Amino acid sequence: MQSNSHEEGYDKVTWTTDVETHPPWLRFHLGISRWELYNRKDPNLAQLTHYLATQHILGSVQKKGGTQLKLLISFPNYGQALLKPMKQTRHAETDVNLFYFSDFERHNAEIAAFHLDRLLGFNRIPPVVGRLINVTTEIKEITTDRRLSKTFFTSPAGNVCFYGQCEYYCSVEHPVCGQPHMLEVSLATMLPDLTIAPRRSWRSPWRRSYSRTKLAQWEKDPAYCDTVKQTPPYNQGTRLVDLIDMAVLDFLMSNMDRHHYETFEQFGNNTFLLHLDNGRAFGRHSQDEPSILAPLQQCCRIRRSTFLRLRLLSLPDFRLSDIMRESLTQDPLSRVAPLLSEPHLSALDRRLAKVLQVVQTCQEKHDDVIYNDIEGHDQGPRSAVTA
Amino acid sequence: MQSNSHEEGYDKVTWTTDVETHPPWLRFHLGISRWELYNRKDPNLAQLTHYLATQHILGSVQKKGGTQLKLLISFPNYGQALLKPMKQTRHAETDVNLFYFSDFERHNAEIAAFHLDRLLGFNRIPPVVGRLINVTTEIKEITTDRRLSKTFFTSPAGNVCFYGQCEYYCSVEHPVCGQPHMLEVSLATMLPDLTIAPRRSWRSPWRRSYSRTKLAQWEKDPAYCDTVKQTPPYNQGTRLVDLIDMAVLDFLMSNMDRHHYETFEQFGNNTFLLHLDNGRAFGRHSQDEPSILAPLQQCCRIRRSTFLRLRLLSLPDFRLSDIMRESLTQDPLSRVAPLLSEPHLSALDRRLAKVLQVVQTCQEKHDDVIYNDIEGHDQGPRSAVTA
């Protein structure tokens, strides 16, 4: 992790100087900068995902925190990953009567979110890769977690299943099952340990109510952004447009579950926002959720770099759905089945057009919609966007 | 309820003498005999189901007992019915990794089980009818049940939903929802109150273990029936062949959840078995569950009347699937969608052939397979079977 402290502009790319003998997860940690988690040109990215996808699994225990089942996986050379299992068929749509806070987490959403965030030029999601694991030999037989191991069983169909212990969906009625042993999972690179790189958790100003009946303040007050704009840390620097970047990402993948975001403490307030925990994205392709765009719609502001990238991805030659489809084929699980079905890919294009429409509507009313974050940075890591 | 006490033969049909001014539910109660719940020729049957399907609903409260949500519905003239709501799309198959004790209850299974039991000539399931009810005006707005009413909410899709309080699937993750108000339900006629007609509950000797790991004794011991045959009440009368009738019914509809059965106490041990609670039937059409037939397979005994009826229903002109399809069209909900999909109907024919195959295999090894229950009863209520 680069401990520089200058307050603006992009950090110099330093991966070329990393010691090649370091394991890829450590090189990833060392490459984290103030403005992004990784540089998209860093060859270590491919090495890191290859490592997660192929290394021998040494240990599997339940990871605490959150409401749904996830495992912490250990690899040789102290590598670790966060595992989320496949819990429903790849293309199942979320039941229309389920609230966003009751929805399942999806392994393919974690994978697709990483790709989408990268293609948008954000680089704010830790690398995620898909893998087929053997539930018996890579979890059941090696786990030291008794609370986990006692939930294993063989299902009526002869599949090896488990459910773990957690708040939602950890019961025999909602098992995670191999076929009979092999299970699709997502593996997300772990961030540096909190003792080395403490993080701060921020409650999103556009957080939903997480209630069946109550509305959040931002849902009732069209002028809500005026208050946010005056409230630290949103009253200076890029924090507000960072939040809007995150809303654009979430709208494209229809993630309603962004209640908090995190930053690295050592970078203070002038730093990028981590887009962690995307398992509830990509739940429904047939509908869009305009309220996710509320920060953009209510604040009428967007980074120029983001706007240019979105415009580029709406052109026929660079269509977001095509670029996502292509990008996802690099994931090992794409050999099992496409990680996003065609209706989900089409939804991305449809939603992208809606984002651009909101920006245009803003521009018709306001002069200060485009926040120019790229003046003087045309050689920076996101320069390709502006070419 | 006919309080006769002779120990064999069919009771004389008495419905013609029932007072026509009695409400249909009361006439149903009065028509219950030692050997069957109703006479299939009784015109009151159609009046009873019409009553349940059309009468104004006066009250709706949760019904205690069991593990899943069900409601007790009140009608004018003191009629009552047990309501089970539609909880999954009509044709969804049970997940292969779910145990029989974790499966949802299905409203259409309750309806189809009543028809199947009647077509088999058993008449041991209280009449069940389907109905489209208005969740808002017929439950939410009239219930006096606070535990129920506080679980109502409007879903993200704008549907009126509730989940009640029970052991399984009573949570916001498993809502019962109208579209936006109308919900398919099954309504089963209530039996006479337990204070008037007390019932005895018997644990089935072929009860499953209700465990993820343990096997029941009958699953381990092929000679299990030898013990049962010597154990009262199975050592005399028709109790053993009654149990085998029930196994045939359950195998045909793939109901693995028959842990208990009931009888009316006043009829002692020489009486029919009530086939209550069939909501977990018809969960899977693509597979059969041979273990449900264990009582037949292990005891190698079957009523002659049942055997003849099964043989009749395997003939092209009387094919079970055709007769069930025809019978189910009489239910009001068949106007919404067929109550059993074609794969479920075909499964009935396939399973019927398997039952007859098991009988034949028995007959190749034993002489006493057919239990002659119809000698001298050719004019009785089930005479059509033997014609």
TrEMBL record, chains A, B:
ATP binds at residues 68, 84, 105, 188-191, 262, 277. Its cofactor is Mn(2+). It is found in: Golgi apparatus. InterPro entries: FAM20, FAM20_C. Residues 152-367 form the FAM20 C-terminal domain. The keyword Transferase does not apply. It comes from the Eukaryota. The active site is at residue 257. One of its GO terms (molecular function) is phosphotransferase activity, alcohol group as acceptor. GO terms for cellular component: Golgi apparatus. GO terms for biological process: enamel mineralization. Belongs to the FAM20 family. PANTHER family: DENTIN MATRIX PROTEIN 4 PROTEIN FAM20, FAM20 C-TERMINAL DOMAIN-CONTAINING PROTEIN. This is FAM20 C-terminal domain-containing protein. The lineage of its organism: Eukaryota, Metazoa, Chordata, Craniata, Vertebrata.
